[in-house]
Amino acid sequence: MAGDEEGLIDSLREYIEDLETYMEISRAGEILRRYFVMNAFDGALTMLGFTVGSYISGLRDPHVIVSGGLGASIAMGVSGFVGALLSEKAEREREIRELEKILFTRLKGKGSIVERANMLAVALAALTDATAPGLAAIVSALPFILSLYVPIAFFTAFIVSIALTLLIVFLLGVYLGVISEENPVKYGIAMVLAGLLVSLISFIHI
C-alpha cells in the first residue's frame, strides 16, 4: 500500500513538472493572464450595463436580470472559446512552422515537447477565454441570485451588485498594475472609471 502511494505521488509530481515545463516553453502564463483579465472585465461590464440599463428602464425583476445578464455572459464565453481556440491554434502552428525552418526538422505530428506545450497553451487559452466572463458575471449577479431565495430588497441587491462589479474591475486593474510593476491603485481606478463609463452609456442609451 505504501509503495502504491509513493508511486502515485511520484507520478503526480512528474505530471506537475511536465505541466510547468510546457507552460514555460509555450509562454502560456502571460497569455492566460491577458485572456482572463480582458474577458473577466468584459463579463463584469456586460453585467453592469445590463443591470443599470434594466433598472433605469423600470425593470425590477431579478429573474430577468439574472437570466439576461448571465445569458449574455455565457454567450460571450462560448464565442470566446471558439475564437480563442481557432486564433491561438493558428498562431501556435505558425510558430511551429517558423521553428521548423530554423531547426531544419519537422516538429508537427511527431509529438515533440514543443507541440505538446503549444497544444496545452491552446486548450488553456480557450478555457480561460470561455470561463472568465461567466465567473465575473456570476459574482456581479450574486445579490440578485440570493434575492430569489432570501428576502432581499431589489434596490439593495442592485446597489450591492454594482459595488461587487466595481470591486471586480478594480481588483483586475490592481492585478494589471502589479504585473506591469506600475501603480496598482492607478490601474484599479482606471478600470473603475471604465465601468462607470459603461453605466453612463447605459443611462444615455435609455
Topology:
Layout: H1 2-26, H2 28-56, H3 62-103, H4 113-147, H5 154-180, H6 184-205
Write out key terms for the chains shown.
206 residues, 6 helices, mainly alpha
Describe the protein's architecture and organization.
With 206 residues, the protein is mainly α. The protein has a domain at 40-84 and 131-205. The protein is 87% helix and 0% strand. It has helices spanning 2-26, 28-56, 62-103, 113-147, 154-180, 184-205. The radius of gyration is 22 Å and the shape is elongated.
Strand content: under 5%
Instruction: Give the helix proportion (percent range).
Output: over 70%
* Gap from first CA to last CA: 67 Å
Sheet having the most strands: none
Order of helices and strands: HHHHHH
Number of helices: 6
Quick structural gist:
This protein has 206 residues and is mostly helical.
